[in-house]
Amino acid sequence: MKKPQSKHRDIVPAVKPYEKPVIIKIESPLVAKAGMSYDHPQASVRSHIDGHAIQHLAKTYGSPLFVYSQATMIKQYQSAYDAIAKHYPHLIFGWSYKTNYLRAICQTFHQLGAYAEVVSDFEYQKARNLGIPGTEIIFNGPYKDSVALKQAMIDGAIINIDHFGEVDDLEAIAKSMDRVVAVGLRINCHTGLYPHWSRFGFNVENGQASHAIERITGSEHLKLVGIHTHLGTFVLDHQAYRKAAEKLMELVQDIELRTKMPIKYIDLGGGFPSLNRLRGVYQSPEIAIPSLEKYAQSLTGPLKPFLNRLNPPRLYLELGRHLIDEAGFLVTSVVADKMLPDGRRSYVLDAGVNLLYTATWYKFNIETDQPVTGLMEPAVLHGPLCMNIDTIEEYSMLPRLSRGQHLIISPVGAYNLTQSMQFIRYRPAVVMVLESGEVCVIKRQETLEDIEATECDLPLAQVKREQA
Question: Which among 205, 163, 156 is positioned nearest to 185, based on CA atoms?
């Protein structure tokens, strides 16, 4: 007897593409033999920034998107200032323009009382264009051309001399203007840090600094009123600041002995770290990075004798990374995924090293905008550039992500915008969540018109090719 045929075809379940199983060493000490569920570490999810949903921000302003928290900037500034000012109240912060010179970022710190610390005529012009008077601009850097120096002298800027050629330039300009110009001297010294930033300023140990003091104090047109040093970047040894301050104090004695006048300022630069994680440092930033109180005590300790003076010299600190890094986030989206030959999952994002230049040195926090269940697996985060070096993270434990999934990368507030490249892709929009809660576009996304605005066409005359 024939079996009756079904009126409906059998439904065949969809077969997932076969993926060859691989074995890869899990390097994270937090992963057990059975793996680790992603819905356990809740800190790996960031759905909002200052009350604004990541999904809404990306939908409104596009992806990728830089987002800055003004509330975090203000908090960082006030806590840093209070920590140091309680030890040495004659304190002025200089906002380091090279760290992030977007107008809204600079305006926020200037409104809090920061001077502008600049290292080029370009940055100097930005500060002046923002209405900052020359007397509130600290002009550093290894190259200041004569035009910029003259303008800075006219404006009464705080000029820290970097090399003997600059001494000659300033002296010649001051002589031509029949003026005596107040200047500062940048020095470098051994404090136990490696690498030693010996290329900036005059070295103490080999006698250059002493020779520079003699040269400047002997000039008829220059008056030495301050001394400056900048130890480096992301300085984890707070005691290095004490050693630097002690060496500056010895030079101050030499200067005051020669000039018979009290010094007007001590400038100990910047270099304070943020709560970012250097590659190769396996401790959490909260453990690896000393407290701000330790930095404050170290750098102000040797300066305490100044407090007995009627008019103590000002202490300048040129902070950048410490104030802005943790206020910056990059929202990016997964645009593709694939399995690499070594078994790692590769996710292609719409943001790469064109926007995250510092990915070479820092291991960022990688967060999703919503909980994603599933086991963690080794993954590589690649950018969208047609370049093999475009890798944000070589090894990250993530659950299986889908196309369109938003990731939040932080802290990225320091240096990434100023060092970003218009390479292959347009640079994205930047928004700031104001302290009031309002979202403000502080830099719109680039367009083709922006890129071509400085380009020129060929002359009208056409180049004729020879006919074959």
Answer: 163
pTM of the full predicted structure? Answer: 0.89
Placement of tokens 């330790």 in the chain:
294
Q: What angle do CA 446, 390, 35 make, to 5 degrees?
A: 120
pLDDT at 467 over 80: no
Contact status, residue 467 vs residue 453, Cβ threshold 8 Å: no
Written as six digits, the tokens of 311 are 């008019």
Outline where 86-221 has alpha helix (H). 103-111, 121-129, 146-155, 164-176, 208-217
Tell me the C-alpha to C-alpha distance, in Å, between residue 398 and each of 20, 305, 374.
19, 54, 9
Residue 117's nearest CA partner among 172, 88, 159, 176 is 159
Model confidence band, residue 34 (pLDDT cutoffs 50, 70, 90):
very low
Pair type for strands 365-368 and 406-410? antiparallel
For residue 100, give Cα distances in angstroms to 222, 274, 323, 409.
32, 14, 10, 17
DSSP-assigned states of every residue in 397-430: EE----TT-EEEEE---SSTTTT---SSS----E
